[in-house]
Amino acid sequence: MERVVVGMSGGVDSSVAAYLLKEAGYEVIGVTMQIWQQEDMFSKEENGGCCGLSAVEDARRVAEKLEIPHYVMNFRTEFQSKVIDYFATEYYAGRTPNPCIACNRFVKWESLLERSLSIGADFIATGHYARIQKLPNQRYTLQTSITAKKDQTYALYNLTQEQLKRTKMPVGDYTKEEIREIAKKLELPVAKKPDSQEICFVPDHDYAFFLESYTKKKAEPGNFVDQNNKVLGKHKGVIHYTVGQRKGLGLALGYPTFVVELRPDTKEVVLGTNEELFERHLICNNLNHMAVETFLPGQEFLAKIRYNHGGAPCKILEVGNDWLRLEFLEPQRAITPGQAVVFYEGDYVAGGGTILSPKKG
């Protein structure tokens, strides 16, 4: 019997994933990853969060109900170095990172998989809404979930071939409603538990406060400027802003104003109109190949530039050493450095990279 370690977050999705794999004949072991639990955060994480203190207890109760062993593994060191330190470094560099993508790649997969294989597991599994396929070219890739509104392939684009080969994602074949119905029929204690919506280590969404507290580094004020470098006012520090932001600027210019660029080297936040947020080009690096073995000029994909972006047709123009430049068929709003761009061929993830900059063509 093949053994699978299920990353149990204490939520309904990973709980049902464990049940589905047990029903499919696997020897299932539940593991909850301790990565950011702090006693003073308990009350904030009662209603969700993939790494809160409540997650451990909820996962333990589910494992007991499913009659599978459950263990808690400590990944705090890996999470701090690969996720939180990365998050802070990127923000102070004027970029807007996606810490969940880093956590998926380096903690929930790289670290958990390594530890799981060391205890004799054949696979790891999660409750993500995605499907894994092996294509005729022998490459492993992600296929979008059958329910588009819950699809999580964007946040998983950076997984390696070896990680995909060793992973099960049974939830991708179901809708969220079907998953909750299964949990209800099984009388799982998390059947009605709400989904987590925030970054687990910044539950109040105040990124700047967290960054200053964590790094002990105060954000330096600077100037708001327009595209012609005219000074428009003073800002609180680059870490308080992101491309596309309108609220919280503290300026009254008589017309709608948006953040269009961050310049950490000069401490400038560039403001402009909504129209100035639209670009047709971008450059990305840190490439990961999934369905395709390489990227080539002339290839056409559907590209998503953020998690909730619907995707837009694009063509690759140039490919360098771990970077590429592309052009969208239509201008896209708020292309944000630090975010991921993920390429799709139909339902399959071709690969992706990290946005370096929107590049005017």
Your description of this structure?
This protein is of the alpha/beta class. The chain is 24% helix and 30% strand. It is built from seven helices and 17 strands. The strands form four sheets. A six-stranded antiparallel β-barrel has the order 12-15-14-13-16-17. Strands 3-2-1-4-7 form a five-stranded parallel β-sheet, with helices on both faces. The chain has a four-stranded mixed β-sheet with strand order 9-8-11-10, with no helix packed on it. A hairpin with a 5-residue loop joins strand 5 and strand 6. Helix 1 (12-23) crosses helix 6. It is globular, with a radius of gyration of 21 Å. The N and C termini lie far apart (56 Å). Mean pLDDT is 92; it is low at 39-48.
What's the layout of helices and strands?
Elements: E1 3-7, H1 12-23, E2 27-34, H2 53-66, E3 70-74, H3 76-92, H4 99-118, E4 123-125, E5 130-134, E6 140-144, H5 161-165, E7 167-168, H6 176-185, H7 207-215, E8 222-225, E9 231-235, E10 258-263, E11 268-272, E12 278-289, E13 300-304, E14 312-320, E15 323-333, E16 340-345, E17 348-358
Parallel strand pairs: 1-2, 1-4, 2-3, 4-7, 8-11
Antiparallel strand pairs: 5-6, 8-9, 10-11, 12-15, 12-17, 13-14, 13-16, 14-15, 16-17
Helix pairs in contact: 1-6, 3-4
